């Protein structure tokens, strides 16, 4: 029998189903990757914002990781919301030396503007977790936070992508341009060259969970053995279709649509 691609997400939840663990598992499933999840924080949130957060005890995060890691091998994993330094330390301890593809979505703030991680956790993420990654996928505010420099132009984005690898030690970096005007352009720096991924901007407010979906799709494709530029290209197509067909659900920023590729195929 052909081996089954398996991927793990370590992240927070979204009961409204658009972001976090829920978005990651929907993406893994849609991309024919067996999905597993370790929950860091239970977040009461929806399309309008974050109403409350409950952080799981660190031992419970460690035990979930042990449950998965002692039982089912996986080819790639991603991290999303890791709210504080204690959680980051515990996760770092478990993944150090694993030699498994690690995609980090450096989640700091929800699309609604609500903060999702503690201030001092940003430092730990930058100094300790970044060097462990195969790829990090910051949006513009996150890339600014990591580099400490303003990003206003496409050249600034490329410079940040390069810096995040050479100065901060990430394996590769994908700086996403969703927050700029004009074309939706992302730059991947893989340690030797810049790859550009560009699509027309879609006129919608429904972008809740697009960052989670994108990094989960990259993780799924990497778990299937695709090279980094190929995985990012396919994932960009996936997230773009998911935004194009996004759902006008809820009272705020609606969620990405994980059936979008089927809808485009049957049209
Ligand atoms: N309105 C849009 N139309 C098309 N693509 C978009 C739009 N907004 C974001 N994207 C793309 O969606 C992906 C997620 O990007 P971004 O919104 O920057 O991340 P995040 O959700 O982490 O803030 C990127 O590929 C970005 O270029
Ligand atoms: C638990 C959790 N993780 C991440 C996000 C960010 O979502 P987005 O993909 O819209 O930036 C979120 N809203 N909730």
TrEMBL record:
<dbReference type="InterPro" id="IPR029056">
    <property type="entry name" value="Ribokinase-like"/>
</dbReference>
<dbReference type="InterPro" id="IPR013749">
    <property type="entry name" value="PM/HMP-P_kinase-1"/>
</dbReference>
<comment type="similarity">
    <text>Belongs to the ThiD family.</text>
</comment>
<keyword id="KW-0067">ATP-binding</keyword>
<keyword id="KW-0784">Thiamine biosynthesis</keyword>
<dbReference type="InterPro" id="IPR004399">
    <property type="entry name" value="HMP/HMP-P_kinase_dom"/>
</dbReference>
<comment type="pathway">
    <text>Cofactor biosynthesis; thiamine diphosphate biosynthesis; 4-amino-2-methyl-5-diphosphomethylpyrimidine from 5-amino-1-(5-phospho-D-ribosyl)imidazole: step 3/3.</text>
</comment>
<keyword id="KW-0418">Kinase</keyword>
<dbReference type="GO" id="GO:0008972">
    <property type="term" value="F:phosphomethylpyrimidine kinase activity"/>
</dbReference>
<dbReference type="GO" id="GO:0009228">
    <property type="term" value="P:thiamine biosynthetic process"/>
</dbReference>
<comment type="pathway">
    <text>Cofactor biosynthesis; thiamine diphosphate biosynthesis; 4-amino-2-methyl-5-diphosphomethylpyrimidine from 5-amino-1-(5-phospho-D-ribosyl)imidazole: step 2/3.</text>
</comment>
<dbReference type="GO" id="GO:0005524">
    <property type="term" value="F:ATP binding"/>
</dbReference>
<dbReference type="Pfam" id="PF08543">
    <property type="entry name" value="Phos_pyr_kin"/>
</dbReference>
<dbReference type="GO" id="GO:0005829">
    <property type="term" value="C:cytosol"/>
</dbReference>
<keyword id="KW-0547">Nucleotide-binding</keyword>
<keyword id="KW-0808">Transferase</keyword>
<dbReference type="GO" id="GO:0008902">
    <property type="term" value="F:hydroxymethylpyrimidine kinase activity"/>
</dbReference>
<protein>
    <recommendedName>
        <fullName>Hydroxymethylpyrimidine/phosphomethylpyrimidine kinase</fullName>
        <ecNumber>2.7.1.49</ecNumber>
        <ecNumber>2.7.4.7</ecNumber>
    </recommendedName>
</protein>
<feature type="domain" description="Pyridoxamine kinase/Phosphomethylpyrimidine kinase">
    <location>
        <begin position="14"/>
        <end position="257"/>
    </location>
</feature>
């Amino acid at each position: 029998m052909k081996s089954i691609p398996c991927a793990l997400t370590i992240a927070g939840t979204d009961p409204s189903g658009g972001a976090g663990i829920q978005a990651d598992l929907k993406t893994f499933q849609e991309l024919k990757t067996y999905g597993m999840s370790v929950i860091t924080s239970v977040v009461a949130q929806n399309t309008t914002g974050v109403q409350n957060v409950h952080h799981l005890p660190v031992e419970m995060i460690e035990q979930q990781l042990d449950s998965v890691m002692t039982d089912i091998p996986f080819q790639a994993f991603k991290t999303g919301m890791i709210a504080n330094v204690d959680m980051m330390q515990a996760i770092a301890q478990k993944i150090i030396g694993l030699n498994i593809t690690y995609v980090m979505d450096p989640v700091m703030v929800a699309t609604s503007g609500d903060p999702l991680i503690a201030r001092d956790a940003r430092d730990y993420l930058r100094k300790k977790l970044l060097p462990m990654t195969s790829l990090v996928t910051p949006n513009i505010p996150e890339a600014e936070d990591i580099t400490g420099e303003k990003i206003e132009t496409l050249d600034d984005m490329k410079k940040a992508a390069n810096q995040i690898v050479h100065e901060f030690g990430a394996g590769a970096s994908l700086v996403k341009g969703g927050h700029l005007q004009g074309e939706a352009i992302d730059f991947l720096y893989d340690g030797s060259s810049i790859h550009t991924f560009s699509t027309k901007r879609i006129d919608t407010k429904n972008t809740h969970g697009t960052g989670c979906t994108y990094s989960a799709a990259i993780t799924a494709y990497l778990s299937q053995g695709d090279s980094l530029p190929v995985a990012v290209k396919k994932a960009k197509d996936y997230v773009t279709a998911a935004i194009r067909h996004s759902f006008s659900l809820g009272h705020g920023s609606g969620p990405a649509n994980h059936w979008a590729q089927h809808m485009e195929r049957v049209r």
